[in-house]
Amino acid sequence: xxxxxxxxxxxxxxxxxxxxxxxxxxxxxxxxxxxxxxxxxxxxxxxxxxxxxxxxxxxxxxxxxxxxxxxxxxxxxxxxxxxxxxxxxxxxxxxxxxxxxxxxxxxxxxxxxxxxxxxxxxxxxxxxxxxxxxxxxxxxxxxxxxxxxxxxxxxxxxxxxxxxxxxxxxxxxxxxxxxxxxxxxxxxxxxxxxxxxxxxxxxxxxxxxxxxxxxxxxxxxxxxxxxxxxxxxxxxxxxxxxxxxxxxxxxxxxxxxxxxxxxxxxxxxxxxxxxxxxxxxxxxxxxxxxxxxxxxxxxxxxxxxxxxxxxx
Length: 312
Prior knowledge:
The structure is a single chain. The protein is mainly β and 312 residues long. The chain folds into two domains: 1-172, no CATH class; 177-312, no CATH class. Helix content is 3%, strand content 39%. The chain contains two helices and 21 strands. Strands 7, 8, 9, 10, 11, 13, 14, 16, 17, 18 and 21 form an eleven-stranded antiparallel beta sheet that branches. The protein is globular, with a radius of gyration of 19 Å.
């Protein structure tokens, strides 16, 4: 049996009683985990229990998608088969550093607690199995005690990696919350604006929005948010064959990416789906955004911030 994380003050951290669940974050705020327990591999799991979700209910995933220099095709942590067992999804491990040796997935590290400018922070490094395109990367996830609904995530190239032009960190499951309102600086964009009449079981092509179209904070951060257009998720009418895990419940929330000191080449990207992933079940209300991301020329250790804030 996998041991649940232990609470330490405001934080949760993996137990030292192995096998242990690899999950870190706020006891009452946002949390990030990896396999195990079961489910898809090659993804960071995002939990928001403050949305009235049970302990294992996810609000989203984040996949790692590195692009080597001289190429335009991404690696896909969620979809590529593991070189260790040929099962779909790259293996992830927690570690104490970017170039650390990896251990067993069910023997996670506790993460590091530090205090910076008087604010306590919890951070953990997640190492991905090497990608088929030669990328060898890790990400550092950091939580700040004064921002319980947000975490930072920074990508690093490990010592054996090919050079990278980008390392995309993409929130992959917007269809669960049925995100349909993309909030830019001077307008709100809907899936109908991007892909009028789109149907079928595949992905709509990426829609991209440059830095000039993104909201800027007083300190110059670039911000883009996506939220549902429904007032009451519980009133949705689902197709008879819709899997239970796609049926949203709990409080509504807005999901936001933020980038401090943005590169002039920064773009926000979304794609969309008419049906839920790996099914032919139509999404109630039509196409919604699925992948939601910021893309920027690669800078080792460059941190983006992802937040899930309740709307009501």
